[in-house]
Design brief:
The chain has 135 residues and is an all-alpha fold. 75% of the residues lie in helices and 0% in strands. It has a single domain (3-131), classed as Globin-like (Orthogonal Bundle), CATH 1.10.490.10. The radius of gyration is 14 Å and the shape is globular. The termini are far apart.
């Protein structure tokens, strides 16, 4: 299995992957819950699940549209006061949840692909964090 197949399985699932992710994120790292104050978490979970496709698209092609989207998202995170240190917490929790989701189909190679994709996405988002991109 590769990153693209992993994303397809997440999107084909009956459950909204993001709901499980945010529940575990809050349970494992309650210090991040203030960043979601006033956020409709069901809506956020759906958006997050769909954004995994952006992660895959950026990792595979580095398209200008996905780059700009990630920069704008980084700007939004900055405005919400999300510190850069939270990105590693987020990535590690995502990897844990993907590992659980895929079970026996999870491999070291798939984890390396996801880690590389998330690290690339994070760096692109930090550009927006630092440069304040506007739409």
């Amino acid at each position: 299995m590769d990153l693209h197949e992993s994303i397809q399985l997440v999107h084909a699932s009956e459950m909204v992957f993001g709901e499980r992710f945010y529940q575990q994120l809050a349970a494992k790292h309650p210090e991040v819950t203030p960043f979601f104050a006033g956020v409709n978490m069901h809506r956020q979970a759906i958006i997050f699940t769909m954004q995994l496709a952006v992660v895959g698209a950026y990792y595979q092609r580095h398209s200008p549209t996905s780059q700009q989207y990630l920069q704008v998202l980084g700007t939004q995170h900055h405005r919400r006061g999300i510190p850069k240190e939270a990105y590693a917490i987020f990535r590690d929790c995502l990897l844990d949840e993907l590992r659980q989701f895929h079970g026996d189909d999870w491999s070291d190679e798939l984890e390396q692909q996801w880690r590389a994709a998330m690290d690339e996405v994070t760096h692109k988002m930090w550009e927006g964090y630092e440069e304040r991109f506007h739409v």
